Amino acid sequence: MRIDRIECIALSLPLKRFFETSFGRFFEREIVLVKVFTNEGTGIGECPVFGPFYSYETLETARHIIHDYIAPAVTQQEISGIEDYIDKVSFIRGHNMAKSGVEFALWDVFAQKAGLALHKLLGGVKSKIPCGISIGVQNSIEELLEEIKKNLELGYQRVKLKIQPGWDIKVVEQVRGSYENIPLMVDANSAYTLADIEVFKALDKFGLMMIEQPLGHEDLYFHSQLQRQLETPICLDESIHSPETAEAAIKMDSCRIINIKPPRIGGLFHTVKIHDLCLHHGIDIWCGGMLETGLGRVFNLAAASLEAFNLPNDIMPSGAYFAGDIISPGIAMDKDGYIRLLDKPGLGYELDFEMVRKYATE
Ligand code: OSB
Ligand code: MG
């Protein structure tokens, strides 16, 4: 297969309601839509960059890396498969979201060419994917309890609360007061240090499924120190960039669970690698999200269809956070909190050009 051209389109989608994490409150979602034109068809992917709050990648760095480094390394030549693409861009250090945006589009082309649904081509074994909801920091506890109620009624199988200093122990205590038995977890997005050990010892008493990324976004060592003092499993998100960091984290006992976000680790090829590693070591995994559009969620759904993804995922239907979506049909979740995988060749969804035009920023 030969890649002729790669195109990036910047999109900005308004959120239905603000989304707040320990790194900020957001009202809109800016992402990069990636189109890869090959001699065997066109594929689409997305880079769900967040600005330098979550990681160093931004809309501008993703476009820059794709146009000025990835495209020259992979266009106008034969690409034998995904692994060949991974090899050809491996000289670029980091910039996993930029790399994965193009990788996703290539998976789309290869799945179309094989006449297989993407999740089947990847080796997925599931027909439906369990969903959890991620609920941001709210203005008040009352507002939070209202959000939880609404989302449980929609069918989500677990609730993840964003926490930060000042919005942690009391909040979890009150949520547990109203919902004694729901599958509940928290995500700190690196808002604490080991000096906050007492916060985690207090959280340890609430029967949480896990505490996601409590400490530094690059850290493995301090997480291993924290994990040995807690019953609750630590789940790493930001700190895991690659199969190598995943292996180091497992060997250091920095976590018992890994949140695999395909864009954060450079795409679906590395997703399979980390999946296999976690299966081997008995580490639980689930697929995280970056407030992707429906398009980004399709790649996450394929990841979550792999055997060892055994916990509810941060994969939401269209309409969870956005009023409109850029794919058609929209992604739907049933009342039991499952998204059914489609069995059409390729992604199974089409780009909605009218919505893309509506949200394009240039
Ligand atoms: O840390 O998991 C995270 C959203 C944006 C950036 C980081 C995170 C999140 C979420 C939302 O928690 C998950 C989702 O719905 O995509
Ligand atoms: Mg997280």
Q: What can be said about the biggest beta sheet?
A: 7 strands, parallel
Using the coordinates shown, work out and report the CATH topology of the largest domain. Answer: TIM Barrel
Q: Output the CATH class name of the largest domain.
A: Alpha Beta
Helical segment count: 12
Explain this structure:
The chain is α/β, with parallel strands linked by helices. The chain has 2 domains: 3-115 and 354-359, Enolase-like, N-terminal domain (Enolase-like, domain 1, 2-Layer Sandwich), CATH 3.30.390; 120-351, Enolase-like C-terminal domain (TIM Barrel). It has 12 helices and 14 strands. It has helices at residues 59-74, 82-89, 96-114, 118-122, 141-154, 169-178, 197-203, 221-227, 243-252, 268-281, 294-304, 353-359; strands at residues 3-21, 24-38, 41-47, 128-130, 133-135, 159-162, 184-187, 211-212, 234-236, 257-260, 284-287, 327-328, 338-340, 350-351. Strands 5-6-7-8-9-10-11 form a 7-stranded parallel β-sheet. Strands 1-2-3 form a 3-stranded antiparallel β-sheet. Helix 2 (82-89) packs antiparallel against helix 3 and helix 9 runs parallel beside helix 10 (268-281). It starts with a strand and ends with a helix. The relative contact order is 0.15. The mean pLDDT is 97. Bound molecules: 2-succinylbenzoate (OSB) and magnesium ion (MG). Residues 187, 189, 212-213, 237, 259, 288 line the site of magnesium ion (MG).
Q: Could you outline the blueprint of secondary structure elements for this entry?
A:
Layout (H helix, E strand, L loop, with lengths): L2 E19 L2 E15 L2 E7 L11 H16 L7 H8 L6 H19 L3 H5 L5 E3 L2 E3 L5 H14 L4 E4 L6 H10 L5 E4 L9 H7 L7 E2 L8 H7 L6 E3 L6 H10 L4 E4 L7 H14 L2 E4 L6 H11 L22 E2 L9 E3 L9 E2 L1 H7 L3
Parallel strand pairs: 5-6, 6-7, 7-8, 8-9, 9-10, 10-11
Antiparallel strand pairs: 1-2, 2-3, 4-13, 12-14
Bound molecules: 2-succinylbenzoate and magnesium ion.
